[in-house]
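Data availability (excerpt). The following record was deposited with the supplementary files.
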Amino acid sequence: MPKSKRSKVVSLTKTAKKDRSRKEDLLKQIQESSDKWDYVYIFRIGQMRNAHLKTVRNLWKEDARIFFGKCAVMSKALGASPETEHRLGLYQIAQRLKGQTGLFFTSYDPEKVIEWFDDFKAADFARAGNVADRDVVLPAGPINRSSDPPEPFPHNMDPQLRTLGLKTSLAKGVPSLTSEHVVCRKGQTLTAEQAQLLKLLLIRMVTFRVGLYARWDAKTGQVTELRPDDEDHLQEAGGEENEAMSE
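Predicted structure:
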């Protein structure tokens, strides 16, 4: 008689070894980067979107190395105290790692780096918990997406629009409102339904941004503050969770 699968014991030893190996490899990569590059910046992200972070990685792949994720791992690699720091002054960077924070290693001219990140922005769709930056009111009649030129929704989208709170009917095969509908008001915290409707309407309300907060100089071991740690200019609500990652 075959053994029951319910009584089968599954060992987690291999998984634990894999996680430990990955962590050790990441520690090594961060330390090697601090030996290779002239500067390391602390950055934080507003409105985290993995796709946009990947774009930043690709644009800098020849001139920089980016690590973003678990602060405890990155801090351990750099050394969180003068006694354990990997290189002179790095403990000051390690102690600043918190929240959605990453490390940006490069030898590129500091002024050009700061200018590049100040200019880089990417509009994206809001999520539940984000705050509406404008009023969105749909007039009675055919419902159009905010494209250029505006396009009506196909007839098969009518059931989904109804589930999101719109009172619609099909007029010549086009989902149409029987009366004006307020999607959101400026300053309102968005619900999941409102965020989904705004996405269907192609209305973007948030901006992905990367803020640089401090810079370590390999030649001097000194850390320059670029922006106060408590300055929350990026509006980080609605971000994605990430494990420590590098490319």
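Summary of structural features: The radius of gyration is 24 Å.
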